[in-house]
Amino acid sequence: YRRAGKGAMAWRNAAGFGGFVFLFLGLFQPFGLSAPGGRIWPVALGYGVVCAGCMLLLNWLVPKVAPRLFSEPRWTVGREIGWTLLNVALIGLANWLYSSAIGLVRPDLAGMLRFGGFTLLVGSFPIAAGVLLNEARLSKRYRDGSDDLNARRPEQAPEAGPTPSVAVAA
User: Considering the chain, what percentage of its residues have pLDDT values greater than 70?
Assistant: First the structure.
C-alpha cells in the first residue's frame, strides 16, 4: 500500500526527513558547508524546512489532487523508485535555489548539479531507513491479515485415505 497521501504519515515523514537533514547538516557540516558569519544552525534549519516542504508538496498535496496515481493496485516498485527519485530531484533543486538565495553558491548549472548530488548523498540514509521500515510495516500488516484469514477458515479434517500397512518382522 502506497504511503504517500496518508495525511498524518506524510506529515510525519516530512518532519522526520526535515529533522534528519537539519541535524545532519548542523552537526557534520558536510560538503564544505559553512554558513555566512559562522551561524550553521539557522542555515541547516533552512535546508530542513526546504526538505520538509518539498516532501509535503509531493507526498501530501499531490495525492490529494491526483489520488488515482497512488491507488494500491496501480502502485509498483518502479513507481516507488521513480517517486523517490522525483522527491530527491525536487529537494535538490529547492536546496540549490535556497543556497543561491542565501549566497552560498552561484545560480549556475554546475551548482545545481552539485546540490542534486549532495541531496542524493544525504538523502540516501533516511531513504534506506524509510524503505526498510515501510517493508517491515507492510510485511507485518500482510502477515497479520493472513493470520486473521487463516483463523476464520473452517478447520478441515485430513482426507481419509488408505492407511499404509506396516510390515512387522517376526
Answer: 86
